[in-house]
Amino acid sequence: MTAPQPSVGDWYRLEGDLFEVVAVDEDDATIEIQYFDGTVEEMDLEDWEAHCEERGLEPVDPPEDWSGSVDIEPDDGARSGPRGGEPDLQARSLDDLDLFDAS
Question: Reading across the β-sheet that carries 30-35, which strands appear in turn?
């Protein structure tokens, strides 16, 4: 079996674990991978080819839920309103704005 050429952004499965190729250093013959849980490792190109020969490395589609590697809670980034519910999107009055204030 010909080893797939590692390319940044491609996803693979190795021994049941999903990972993404995040960097390839051709000068050092290394591949930096990030597992779905966020763990980052470096793999030698020789190891990559050995895993391919053993059929332990297979290309896969990216996971639909990519949040595992970035530690985001479903509610992160959502601002709550004054009562703790929906975000406060109400426009504020511009009555106190002095359009001619040069300070």
Answer: 40-44, 30-35, 17-25, 11-14, 57-60
Residue 51 identity:
H
Residue 94 CB neighbours (<10 A): 7
Q: What is the pTM of this model?
A: 0.61
pLDDT 10s digits, 36-90:
888 999 999 999 999 888 888 999 998 887 555 555 455 545 454 555 555 555 6
pLDDT of residue 56: 85
Residue 21 burial class via C-beta count within 10 angstroms: exposed 0-12, middle 13-18, buried 19 and up: buried
Tokens of 74: 């479903």
Specify the higher pLDDT residue, 74 or 23. 23
- Locate the domains of the chain by residue range: 11-61
Give 99's contacts (C-beta < 8 A, 6+ positions apart). Answer: none
State whether the Cα torsion 5-32-62-55 is positive or negative. Answer: positive
Q: Are 23 and 8 in contact (CB under 8 A)?
A: yes
Q: Which two tokens stand for residue 58?
A: 């297979």
